[in-house]
Write a structure and sequence with these properties.
63 residues, mainly alpha
Length: 63
């Protein structure tokens, strides 16, 4: 599943880095901290590899 916003794609990239041990988990904030625990490395790769062109900065909230 591709990321739905630039913020989501960036958070997935940070979480993937922590999952691989390249970044300390303690350095993560917000969504990326939740993603590292709740998603597999494969799922994070899919989100992080989403092309950013045409994505909104933030995901619109559902009413």
């Amino acid at each position: 599943m591709p990321a739905r916003s630039k913020a989501q794609q960036k958070a997935a990239g940070a979480a993937l880095s922590a999952k691989r041990g390249e970044t300390a988990k303690s350095e993560l904030k917000g969504a990326s901290r939740e993603m590292v625990d709740s998603m597999s490395e494969k799922q994070l790769e899919e989100f992080a590899s989403t092309k950013r062109k045409g994505l909104p900065e933030k995901k619109k909230t559902e009413d």
